[in-house]
Amino acid sequence: MEANRRHGNRTNTNPSNKIKLCTLNICGLSERSKLVINKYVDSKEIDILCLQETGTDDSSKLEIHNMCNISDTNKAAKKGVALYVRNKHTITKLDNISKLSKNLDSCWGLVVIAKKRYIIGNLYVKLNHKRSEEHTSELQSLVNLVCRLLLEK
To answer: How large is the greatest C-alpha to C-alpha distance in the chain, in angstroms?
Structure first.
């Protein structure tokens, strides 16, 4: 570390300021997949977990060890998405953003980690052989909305 200081390089010695995010398309949240996800999330100390194609909106089936979650509001693609944060962090569901997407399963949340706020979105876009302009413009408008929200803060 001393050598790094002499050369002007910064070495991050505080791992607590890093956020570990994981996103998985799971094609159905079974009991077996939950066991694997629980083990992985705990071993890697994941802070934020995004799951696509959960196949359910039943909150009891969406439970992951040591994490709280929110799930999609509009259920447009009927595949299911969920956004998780460790219990030591907080998450507030942002329904107004999710409701704007008509053709996407999405959930958006305001996540607070170490007194910093982040807007996190988890989207599932059903892939067809050809991508519609409606999907593309909808994704672009969601990105613009989130950027506007961040600039207003």
So the answer is: 56
Q: In whole angstroms, give the CA distance from residue 118 to residue 25.
A: 22
- Cα separation of 142 and 134, whole Å? 12
Predicted confidence band at 91 (pLDDT cuts at 50, 70, 90)? very high
Contact 52, 60 (CB under 8 A): no
Question: What's residue 137's pLDDT?
Answer: 52
125: which residues sit within 8 A by CB, 6+ positions away?
77, 103, 104, 135, 139
Return the number of other C-beta atoms located less than 10 Å from residue 76's C-beta: 18
Write the DSSP symbol of residue 115: T
Mean pLDDT over each residue of the chain, to the nearest integer:
77
> What whole-number distance in Å separates Cα of residue 86 and Cα of residue 42?
10
Distance, first Cα to last Cα, the chain: 37
C-alpha span between 48 and 85 (Å, rounded): 5
